[in-house]
Design goal:
This protein is mostly beta strands. The chain has three helices and twelve strands; from the N terminus they run ββαβββαβαββββββ. The strands form two sheets. The protein has a six-stranded antiparallel beta barrel. A six-stranded mixed beta sheet has the order 10-9-8-7-12-11.
Length: 171
């Protein structure tokens, strides 16, 4: 499952919800009729009736109406639920420098030919993404996912090569 959004809170009394986007392609992911898998699984599946932009206080948000949600109480019970689409339903990415999160999670992280850990998740930030590197016996590290620090991603080979600046993996 690829996470494309997270329900933040209800909006109004008719069951709309405010969603946090987790995708670069909202116009492709939030199409009426889309059936989302959910995390936790017991809260879904959820079917998108419509999505619309809503701006308040200069901040744009995506509002969703879901066929299974008719009132504010039901919408409120969905706070924090992640919305996903099945990986098999995704189109291939044409750009060799772009990846879906699920393609990166689990890859070995290599520094100077030695495995130091593995990618446990991807954090999407405003400036750039970060790889969370789980390192056995020590703390997790955040690695900026930029070409200067991560020059090679080999999904087929199961690894990412990292050229860390000094101190990146220090406590």
């Amino acid at each position: 499952m690829l996470i494309v959004g997270r329900i933040i809170r209800p909006h109004g009394i008719r069951g709309e919800v405010v969603a946090e986007l987790r995708t670069d392609d909202p116009q492709d992911r939030f199409v009426p009729g889309t059936v989302f898998t959910t995390d936790p699984v017991a809260r879904g599946p959820l079917t998108l009736e419509y999505a619309r932009q809503h701006t308040t206080a200069g901040k744009a948000r995506l509002l969703l109406a879901l066929e299974e949600v008719n009132d504010r109480d039901t919408a409120d019970s969905l706070r924090g639920v992640f919305l996903g689409v099945e990986v098999e339903d995704l189109p291939e990415i044409d750009d060799p420098d772009e990846f879906h999160d699920h393609q990166l999670v689990g890859l070995a992280v290599m520094v100077d030919g030695e495995k130091i850990g593995e990618v446990s998740r991807v954090i999407h930030g405003p400036a750039h993404d970060q790889l969370v590197v789980r390192r056995p016996g020590t703390h997790d590290a955040l690695v900026p996912f930029v070409a200067a620090i991560v020059p090679e991603v080999d999904v087929a080979g199961g690894k990412v090569v990292v050229t860390p600046p000094g101190g990146l993996f220090d406590l």
